[in-house]
Amino acid sequence: MTKKNNKQDCIFCKIAKKQTPVKIVYENDNFLAFLDMNQKTSGHTLIIPKKHFINIIDLPESLGSELLDAIKRVAEIRLKEGAEGFNIMQNNGKFAGQVIMHAHFHLLPRKKGDGHEHYSI
Prior knowledge:
By secondary structure, this protein is α+β, with helices and mostly antiparallel strands. The protein has a single domain, classed as HIT family, subunit A, CATH 3.30.428.10. Helices cover about 20% and strands about 20% of the residues. It contains two helices and five strands, in the order H-E-E-E-H-E-E. A five-stranded antiparallel β-sheet has the order 1-2-3-5-4, covered by helices on one side. The protein is globular. The relative contact order is 0.21.
């Protein structure tokens, strides 16, 4: 486990503690989902653990099913709002594009012709 960061300055920790206002989409005991401030698609949502874990390697396996449930719940919300599909993206480490060193998952609602076909793998 890598613990070489300063969680006191972590924006996601502040959001999880409700010290920084965001538009919350979903919440359970260990995860919080909120609108990304830099929307890549309409409804772009971040799902974070409330406790500070740097990346998916740090996230305990015991939280796996609760994480999957949170992702599914957010996806269901977005589909009910008119999304036709969605991408789930997650970066681990600076060289993989992780900017905030607090584990987080991007859920990007998709619609035909949304102009973001480059998110396809």
